[in-house]
Amino acid sequence: MKSIWYGKNPLSYLLLPFSLVFWVLSKVRRLLFLLRLKKTHRFSAPVIVVGNITVGGTGKTPLVIWLSQHLKELGYRPGIVSRGYGGKASHWPQQVRPDSDPVIVGDEAVLLARLSDCPVCVAPKRSDAVRDLLQYTQCNLVLSDDGLQHYAMARDMEIVVIDGERGFGNGFLLPAGPLRELPGRLRKADLLISNGVWREGVPAMTIREPLVLPLQNLAEEPQPLSKAAGEKVHAVAGTGNPRRFFDMLQHYGLEIVPHAFRDHKIYRKKDLLFDDDLPVLMTEKDAVKYARYATGRHWLVRIEMVPDADFVNEFDHLMKGLKHGQETA
Q1: What digits encode the pLDDT tens for the residues 49-90?
Q2: What SS3 state is found at 32?
């Protein structure tokens, strides 16, 4: 589908009638919430949604991790909720710890728990996850990783992340294009940020130099990715946009043998055992699932996203108003 969504492919026009059906159903569903025929759940603590209007990875999870640390610096006790996509738990919600099984609760949930050092709860219905998070932890603010279209969950702030490289593709709604909602939806968001430069006036987040750690021993001192410049490696990415990971490795001078897998893939041991002695570098999201099989050849690449100062200043300003509103309520 990505070749249709992000290129000039005439097949996209054949799918436009289905996009019209998708648009009508989305509008009806939204109207049901506006008319209060479907329930919107409200909570005792503010909820900040970090989402997007396109399908696929845009960098929401790294931004949620950054926000969780920044909110701690502002004096909050944040918790995080997510859908737990790909998790095979027999019941929901699920509280997630750094050592939770990604097969049960989902790979991104474990990654969030490990890197944020915050309480994390997941459920297909995010409002259920918020309820459990507030009931069983001491957090006083909730970050939702995705969930922009989950209107059953009331929110106090919306942050929309845009793919600076791919934008909105062909501009069509699903399934003819990658859009979950039309671009006009952006006007209702509190903040916009792009992963990489997108348009003038929209703040961006950039990557600090990535670090490389041996998957067998994450306690080792991480090394800058640039130290591997000139080396030939296997590059593994099971994400919404594997090309972004591959391009980053090449930017730092590595020669790569790319291996793109579907998003949220659950790996078997043989999947990442290649018939040579080259190092195998993978995203941290993939490393969460492959750690049990790791050998000395397997490495994770740790990526930290940093928002522009303009975004940080505007976010801090909105948080002052949000805090005042909560105190008044």
Answers
A1: 999 999 987 889 999 999 999 999 999 999 999 999 889 999
A2: helix
